[in-house]
Amino acid sequence: MLYKCYQYLKIVNTLIDITHHDNNKHYISKKHFDNQYKGGEKTPRKRSALLDTTVSEINILGRHLEVLKAVKENEPIGIIRLSQLTNLPQHSVRYSLRILEQEGLIEPSKSGAITTDKVYEVLGTLESTLEDLATTLKEYKKKLK
Fold this sequence. Notes:
With 145 residues, the chain is mainly alpha-helical.
């Protein structure tokens, strides 16, 4: 179920950001704007400010899901080990753990974070919500053509 959430999150992120990233720069995809290029060259393009907050929030959700998956697969687990497994800085892991705890998905224990029974219910809801969001964004994308 967590894997499907990642798949939907990837679709949503792709639909929101039709650019791809290379060395922290945004480039217009040749696939979408073929007539603007010669020989596969890319021109830097800044993403619209209309989407900055949305893309940022989706990336944060992706990080929370990555941390949740690591907790679920390795529980009980501490911050340092989570940081190593996810390649995220400890402060980012700490923040994600706090959010996941506030949502009731994990709880602290003497040995580290563990998941709660609520995790399966929430993942099911999240999966369907991301699916609905992906469908909505596909419809918006069609309107742009």
